[in-house]
């Protein structure tokens, strides 16, 4: 843990905080390439081999049957199903509002220029398993695709030790009415979605978070299909002033830390006194934690609690570009105007990250490791294509011919110029 004034950070400490969790694929590159190649060449045979190797189960039919989905409803508490239903409604509502702001375009300048919007046809949603299963990620990845109008949506997620689909994950997929759910995870799932196999269809875009192997696999199949972005371990940065509650800040740091031993947690406070209060609260709460305690303790090794002037904390946050940014200050809306980079922002102490993780309606699939400097989180637009068009008559073509012919000939592309010139000789 780093606990000190923002102004006392060494260059190395600052770089370590800012450049957290930069993925190093060197040690896994060859194995990921081999798995993808095997899936491309051998299809379901490779999926069965790697599922047995990594998940320790033998699966003949990867597609989840209707009977298995019905069985899932009998395994899950009805309160969980109700919670998924309510979360689904909120997520649908927000993403439908997003869609309203994505416009087609038609303007007249010389000829007619325009833009039409079309949905990507086939979508693959990767839903992680392993340490935990994430039915909420089913909702977050599939609903914006549904709202966008994508025709086919498929889910892949690792099987349970019994060779089944996780019950809550299956229910979430059923509530959204996806076209298929498949019991396969890891690199092999990404390969299946990218290339297609006998049982799993090839898609046009793959979205969703995953471990470093899944992340590299997505990177390697980009170009064969589109992807959302490369997401790493979860992270939070909290800015608190003298009015902030140190207990809430400590709770939210721990909530993020329980995700993953590589999770990144940063608290930026406006005074040393407040920073010390947060540190004391962390230590106090940690004593009473039983579940996932080792994961939390490992993640907290990377914790940074820093203090300084508010304006400098904001600048540091923009440089850090967090996945989740919590503004626990007296007037968070005023600070919001100064934020340049963040995946999702939570304003005020009654807006903790978990509401965005599950039920507020915004999406929880967000850029990490500073990628929010140049990327948005998952949204309806992720699943849309913008196609431009133009319509010129002869007079409009004549008005622009000199520009086109001059530039075409400057680039040495004679037939480009002739394609325009000869039309105007007729």
Automatic annotation (TrEMBL):
Keyword RNA-binding annotated? no
Active site (record annotation) = 323 (proton acceptor), 324 (proton acceptor)
What is the reaction catalyzed?
A: L-histidinol + 2 NAD(+) + H2O = L-histidine + 2 NADH + 3 H(+)
Q: Which GO terms describe its biological process?
A: L-histidine biosynthetic process
State one molecular function term (GO).
Answer: zinc ion binding
Provide the residue positions that the database annotates as binding NAD(+). Answer: 126, 188, 211
Q: In which pathway does it act?
A: Amino-acid biosynthesis; L-histidine biosynthesis; L-histidine from 5-phospho-alpha-D-ribose 1-diphosphate: step 9/9
Indicate the enzyme's highest-level EC class. oxidoreductase
Which residue windows are transmembrane per the record? none
Q: What cofactor does this protein call for?
A: Zn(2+)
EC numbers listed for it are: 1.1.1.23
Cross-referenced InterPro entries, in alphabetical order? Answer: Ald_DH/histidinol_DH (IPR016161), Histidinol_DH_monofunct (IPR022695), Hstdl_DH (IPR012131)
The entry marks the following residues as binding substrate, namely: 234, 256, 259, 324, 357, 411, 416
The entry's Zn(2+)-binding residues are 256, 259, 357, 416
Q: Name one GO cellular component term.
A: cytoplasm
Q: How is the cofactor bound?
A: Binds 1 zinc ion per subunit.
Keyword tags: Amino-acid biosynthesis, Coiled coil, Histidine biosynthesis, Metal-binding, NAD, Oxidoreductase, Zinc
Which residues fall in a coiled-coil region? 268-302
What family, per the record?
Belongs to the histidinol dehydrogenase family.
Instruction: Report the protein's function.
Output: Catalyzes the sequential NAD-dependent oxidations of L-histidinol to L-histidinaldehyde and then to L-histidine.
User: By what name is this protein known?
Assistant: Histidinol dehydrogenase
| Native species | Methanocaldococcus infernus (strain DSM 11812 / JCM 15783 / ME)
Q: State which gene encodes it.
A: hisD
């Amino acid at each position: 843990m780093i606990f000190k004034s923002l102004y006392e950070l060494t260059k190395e400490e600052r770089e370590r905080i800012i450049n957290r969790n930069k993925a190093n694929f060197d040690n896994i590159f060859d194995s990921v390439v081999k798995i993808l190649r095997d899936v491309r060449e051998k299809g379901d045979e490779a999926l069965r081999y790697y599922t047995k190797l990594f998940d320790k189960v033998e699966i003949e039919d990867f597609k989840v049957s209707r009977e298995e989905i019905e069985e899932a409803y009998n395994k899950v508490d009805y309160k969980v199903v109700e919670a998924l239903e309510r979360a689904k409604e909120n997520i649908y509502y927000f993403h439908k509002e997003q869609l309203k702001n994505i416009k087609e375009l038609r303007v007249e300048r010389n000829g007619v220029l325009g833009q039409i919007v079309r949905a990507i046809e086939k979508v693959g949603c990767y839903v992680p398993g392993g340490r935990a299963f994430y039915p909420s990620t089913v909702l977050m990845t599939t609903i914006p695709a549904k709202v966008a109008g994508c025709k086919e949506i498929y889910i892949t997620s690792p099987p349970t030790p019994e060779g089944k689909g996780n019950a809550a994950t299956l229910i979430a997929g059923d509530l959204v009415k996806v076209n298929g759910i498949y019991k396969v995870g890891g690199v092999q799932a990404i390969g299946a979605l990218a290339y297609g196999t006998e049982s799993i269809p090839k898609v046009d875009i793959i979205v969703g978070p995953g471990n470093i192997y899944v992340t590299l696999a997505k990177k390697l199949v980009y170009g064969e299909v589109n992807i959302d972005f490369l997401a790493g371990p979860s992270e939070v940065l909290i800015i608190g002033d003298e009015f902030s509650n140190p207990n809430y800040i400590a709770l939210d740091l721990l909530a993020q830390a329980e995700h993953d031993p590589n999770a990144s947690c940063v608290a930026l406070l406006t005074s040393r006194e407040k920073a010390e209060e947060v540190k004391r609260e962390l230590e106090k709460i940690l004593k009473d934690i039983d579940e996932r305690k080792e994961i939390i303790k490992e993640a907290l090794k990377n914790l940074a609690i820093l203090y300084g002037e508010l304006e400098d904390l904001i600048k540091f946050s923009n440089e850090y570009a967090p996945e989740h940014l919590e503004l626990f200050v007296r007037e968070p809306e005023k600070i919001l105007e100064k934020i340049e980079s963040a995946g999702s922002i939570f304003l005020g102490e009654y807006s903790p990250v978990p509401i965005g993780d599950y039920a507020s309606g915004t999406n929880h699939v967000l850029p990490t490791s500073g990628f929010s400097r140049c990327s948005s989180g998952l949204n309806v637009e992720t699943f849309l294509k913008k196609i431009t068009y133009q319509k010129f008559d002869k007079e409009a073509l004549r008005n622009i011919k000199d520009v086109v012919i001059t530039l075409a000939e400057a680039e040495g592309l004679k037939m480009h110029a002739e394609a325009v010139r000869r039309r105007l000789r007729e």
